[in-house]
Amino acid sequence: MSNVFEFVAASREKSGTSTARAVRRQGNVPAIIYGGSSAPALITLNHNDVIKRLENEAVYSHILEISVDGKAEKAVLKDLQRHPAKPQVLHMDFMRINENEQLKMHVPLHFINENEALGVKKGGVATHARVEVEISCLPSALPEYLQVDLENLDVGESVHLSEIILPEGVQIVELTQGEGHDLAVASIVASRVSKGDEEETEEETSAE
To answer: Domain for residue 14, yes or no?
Structure first.
């Protein structure tokens, strides 16, 4: 299993909390794969293999191949439950895909040219209001991430959802919900240090 987007799973018959605990004690992850024309299927995956796959950010927004008892299915990762204190995956939900049907997925935002931004060069600080966004598209158009360029952003300015350049066939779900949903994803704010420096400069000027 060399491909990071491939998961090998085994089917399981029983559900419930006690069964899930038993699966975890064996070093595996209980999971479910649902959607499409087939019935939901309970599966288990090797925990160590899952951890290795999840080290790659693209797994969260990529078409995956789930091999269940040797039969491969295309799916996306829809939900992931982690232990609050341990580096342990508790449960995974996979959704089967249809190449001809739109799907909704959360994809990460990658911010570029942050250090070169106009406002940062003036002493401002870049802040991120969001690190991911929900999109709608056909599986073939699913992007690994969306890029947000901050180079021309000045102090006091923001980049909004509507300003993100989207690949063909991709929509941001929130923008389809009407006015008031074009929210900021990143801003350049004046830093406290730069404000303090300005105040000191003004005080020195007044003293002179």
So the answer is: yes
